[in-house]
Specification:
Order of helices and strands: EHEEHEHEHEEH
Oligomer: single chain
Number of domains: 1
Strand content: 25-35%
CATH architecture: 3-Layer(aba) Sandwich
Bound molecules: coenzyme A
Shape: globular
Largest sheet: 7 strands, mixed
Distance between the termini: 29 Å
């Protein structure tokens, strides 16, 4: 069985043939990720075999904010009326050759763990995601993400839920 590890993206990672089925996500990891790192627009973490360099999955985190008016009533009634700080899960993808092996779940849990760690040093209300399509929405909802009010594919997972997972 392959031992997978998640590590910070580095230019040496092999990703020229990465293919998850979504061209925009393939294009990002093949061609754009280095510029995003350089300009601090996103921090990308890749899934590789232990000791190897071939990328089979990745996710990108960035700082974000969600409008007060987009929060469901049960969340907003306890909050001041200004945007709430979030971590944005900007991208999440697994190569088609290994999809269906719980690697998407592994990457999502890693993103949740990093968000929980950050929240001890930074105000973070939730993890936000703009799901690409209905399938991606279903994947995130399975892990407890809740729709925001502006779009059924615009989702959030409260930090209280995330901290409940990691103690
Ligand atoms: C979505 C994606 C990351 C899932 O990765 P994966 O490694 O194939 O999924 P996993 O094996 O970890 O699946 C874990 C669980 O999620 C479910 N799941 C996986 N893909 C799903 C989908 N598209 N819709 C609904 N549920 C899904 C699995 O059935 C499994 O559920 P189970 O616990 O009931 O068995 C992957 O299919 C992918 O890269 N898709 C293309 C890119 C994309 O759409 N990314 C999301 C951008 S917002």
């Amino acid at each position: 069985m392959i031992d997978w590890v998640v590590e910070s993206f580095a230019k040496q990672h092999e990703r020229t043939d990465f293919s998850c089925g979504k061209p925009a996500l393939d294009d990002f990891i093949r061609s754009r990720v280095s510029q995003y790192e350089k300009r601090r627009l996103g921090k990308t973490f890749v899934l590789v075999p232990s000791g190897g360099k071939r990328v089979v999955g990745y996710f990108t985190l960035a700082a974000g904010a969600v409008s007060f008016s987009n929060l469901p009533a049960d969340a907003s009634r306890k909050l001041p009326q200004h945007p709430v700080p979030v971590v944005l899960l900007a991208r999440l993808a697994v190569d088609q050759s290994v999809q269906g092996n719980r690697l998407g779940e592994r990457l999502l849990l890693d993103a949740l763990h990093r968000t929980a760690e950050l929240s001890s040093r930074l105000g973070i209300y939730a993890l936000e995601v703009d799901a690409l399509d209905a399938a991606a929405t279903a994947f995130h909802v399975k892990y407890g993400f809740v729709p925001l009010l502006d779009d059924p594919r615009h989702l959030f997972l409260p930090i209280t839920t995330i901290e409940g997972v990691f103690g």
